[in-house]
Amino acid sequence: MLAVFYNQKLLDNTLIVVINNEEVINQDKGKNFVVGYSKDNNVSFINIFNFNTYMKLNDGYLKFDKKLCETINKITKIDLSNFIDENDFVVGQIDVCEEIKGTHLHRCMVNVGNETLQIVCGAKNVRKGIKVVVALDGAIMPYGKIIKPSQLLQTKSNGMICSKKELNLHSTKFNDEGIIELPSEYNLGDKFNEIFNS
Q: ∠35-78-194 over CA atoms, to 5°?
């Protein structure tokens, strides 16, 4: 997993790169950055200060692309290029949608192209047959929550069906209420890159 956040005012011009959710036991401080390491000496996070002196960015949750990767590598000497094509937000289709008795929740079977995931969803507009945005296991939401397998009322849930608000989308292209209902031209399993473009 990898998530990149930047906000010039709120984060004091710091780029935050989250790589895993492991406990940080060691830190390495450079001239303008801090790197956190887990017990296996894996990089857990990178914070780069005064980032707009290296590269101009828009505030928010950022797409990790080649240019950003190269800039981070130049500053920290850490190669994150294996994360460039990773995207934990994909297009799925709800093939099964069953009420969980006595609740407002539904047990959904969601086809994300290469597999079918069981996801519990409480949105009013959830139903069989619609295409949706799915945050996969390990995805980091724009507000910082890490998606992990969970269990709600004895029902396992692997992933999250996302709303426009949860993805911090401002585009008028998608419905404002409930989970996003994608048009038919979106293909199952495709990366949902609009999260970075709104």
A: 90
Alpha-carbon gap, residue 54 to 81, rounded angstroms: 18
Element (H, E) at 12: none
Q: Tell whether the model's pLDDT for residue 33 goes beyond 60.
A: yes
- CA gap 51, 6 in Å, rounded: 9
What is the pTM (predicted TM-score) of this model? 0.78
pLDDT of residue 47: 97
Three-class DSSP category at 69: helix
Q: Residue written as tokens 């709600």?
A: 152
- Give the model confidence (pLDDT) of 151-160 as tens digits: 888 899 999 9
DSSP characters over 39-52: TTS-EEEEEESSGG
Q: How far apart are CA 118 and CA 120, in angstroms?
A: 7
Quote the CA–CA distance of 121 and 43 in Å, as a whole number: 33
Q: How many angstroms separate the Cα of 6 from the Cα of each of 38, 45, 47, 105, 151?
A: 23, 14, 10, 34, 32
